[in-house]
Amino acid sequence: MDPKDAHHLRKLIRELKNCRGRHTELVSVYVPAGYDLNNVMSQILQEQGTATNIKSTNTRKNVTTALEKTVQHLRLFKQTPKNGLAVFCGNVSEREGVPDFKIWSIEPPEPITNRIYRCDQIFITEPLEQLVAPKDAYGLIAMDNKEATIATLKGDNYIIHKRLTSGYSGKQRAGGQSAMRFARIVEEQSHEFKKRIGDAATEVFLPAIKDIRGLIVGGPAATKEEFLEGDYLHHEIKKKILAVKDITYTDESGIRELIDASSDDLKEVELIRHRVGMQRFLKILVKDGPVAYGADVETALAANAIDTLFISEALPDEQIDDLYERAKATGATVEILDETSEEGSQLHKSFQGKAAILRYKIN
């Protein structure tokens, strides 16, 4: 999906999710690609007739008005758009007795297959969320003999699913135990902990194995090799191993370290792409190389000098659209960064929401 389309869709979803009805009076309508709009309008008109039986005067008025406005909007279309249509309508006023009816309509950038009509206290956004949700996930395991963290990486976010600790005895020796007996106890502890890690990985990854594009395991050399060579991981998960990395930490910091260490293996992941891009921008900036940020981006655009443009989602939509279209027209690569990510926050706060790597240095 085009980054600009994805940005607008994410913003619409956030706006819709912030709306609440006082009762089940917010209307969501999804028309799949190729479906007859006349059938949808007939269904809504029938529902409008049924809604006249609602006992509460305010609720009845809100529902019938929302349905009427939805039908009026659908009549603007001669046929269902190529990718389908989604319409949302309702009284979203925060003050009781002061109506504020709003209607949103989107022809999605990718086909929708859901046919939905729903009156609820919230708008139904899941089908739209599925369009912008990253399709592929990567499994991450950071581990040693004392601690393990299991996570997934999707798009520009990682999610921690499990944190495990072992109670591992390490090199300390209890009084009176022979060296061999102590070594066996340590070995058993290590074996049991690896089994727990494998079981936790199965619980997290196996139900979503079709969406797991690859698994990356990190930790001290000997420990992770023993884990991978042993019979600890489910065979279906083992098939997904993409890379094995040496890392220092095994908590959430270890997950971040593992992601950074795997940047070459994860080039297609949005988080990695944005992180690597911004790191490259900063390195060139420090060396006083060909970059621009803030107001200087306009000068670089006019000079057709931009190779890669980074835009913050925190900028106004009109500005994002303008920068995006002008940069794409010059053949530049454009990345739109979520302001909640580390790189997106830095772009917004330190560089006025726009930064660029240039093809050549300009005055």
How would you sum up this structure, described in words?
- This protein has 3 domains: 3-132, Translation, Eukaryotic Peptide Chain Release Factor Subunit 1, Chain A, CATH 3.30.960.10; 137-268, eRF1 domain 2 (Nucleotidyltransferase, domain 5, 2-Layer Sandwich), CATH 3.30.420; 271-358, 60s Ribosomal Protein L30, Chain: A, CATH 3.30.1330.
- 42% of the residues lie in helices and 23% in strands.
- It contains 12 helices and 13 strands.
- It has helices at residues 3-17, 37-51, 57-74, 126-132, 179-205, 221-229, 235-238, 252-261, 270-286, 296-302, 317-329, 342-350; strands spanning 26-31, 85-91, 101-106, 116-120, 137-143, 147-154, 157-165, 212-219, 241-246, 291-293, 306-312, 333-337, 354-358.
- A 5-stranded mixed sheet has the order 7-6-5-8-9, sandwiched between helices.
- The two termini are 35 Å apart.
- The model has no long low-confidence stretch (mean pLDDT 92).
Question: What does the secondary structure layout of this molecule look like, with pairings?
Answer:
Blueprint lengths: L2 H15 L8 E6 L5 H15 L5 H18 L10 E7 L9 E6 L9 E5 L5 H7 L4 E7 L3 E8 L2 E9 L13 H27 L6 E8 L1 H9 L5 H4 L2 E6 L5 H10 L8 H17 L4 E3 L2 H7 L3 E7 L4 H13 L3 E5 L4 H9 L3 E5 L5
